[in-house]
TrEMBL record:
<dbReference type="InterPro" id="IPR000182">
    <property type="entry name" value="GNAT_dom"/>
</dbReference>
<protein>
    <recommendedName>
        <fullName>N-acetyltransferase domain-containing protein</fullName>
    </recommendedName>
</protein>
<feature type="domain" description="N-acetyltransferase">
    <location>
        <begin position="29"/>
        <end position="168"/>
    </location>
</feature>
<dbReference type="InterPro" id="IPR016181">
    <property type="entry name" value="Acyl_CoA_acyltransferase"/>
</dbReference>
<dbReference type="Pfam" id="PF00583">
    <property type="entry name" value="Acetyltransf_1"/>
</dbReference>
Amino acid sequence: MDNTAPVTTYYLEMTAAHQLREKPQPEGLVVMEAEQKEFRFNRYLYQLVGEPWQWVDKLSLPDAEWRRYAEREQLRTWVAYERGSIAGYYELEQQPQGNIQIAYFGLAPRYVGRGFGGYLLSHALRSAWDWNPEQTRRVWVHTCTLDHPGALANYQARGMSVYKTETE
């Protein structure tokens, strides 16, 4: 990977639940919410899914900061399993003014390219809209050129639109 190339960040949003273009659930893939909050599990998921994409900014955080992040009421975590193994995960963060951010989203390395990402993203968007339907006004996420080459296309295929780009 060329670390000298400029990095472009894309900010995407969906402003109505009816904009969601769902991908069907692949056979054998089950998505469950981790209802019992455990910061160590979030840290493990972050490392498992983020390693190929250099998600390193949070790895050095002390346990207390991980706990504050992962165990608060405004954060919910879902995990995708295939035959009992972790295939991927996502975190949703409830924010002010009816915003919900897909804070983290991705597949475990051995599951990339197996057709699970579209369904997992569909599940994430549906869960975001269902979290507090009376108050949710927008679901948003950001991705960048360091992410999986298909990430931006997946977000757009599910009905999200780019509202801002930044290049550094």
